[in-house]
Amino acid sequence: MAKKLYKSRDKKICGVCGGVADYFDIDPTIVRLIWVAFVLGAGSGILAYIIAAIIMDDEPDYIDVQ
Q: Taking the complete model, does pTM exceed 0.90, yes or no?
């Protein structure tokens, strides 16, 4: 079964960092710190976050078992 990238229900802002952390199976705090570094470094993190928040689907309420 293929993994899919969803926004997390465990949200701080839109759930993007939580969703990325779930996808890569790492701590969401690490992803948030990396995202902050991108924002402070070049400012490109803000645009990437907004795009990801618009494009990513919300995590479904059910678990698809096949």
A: no
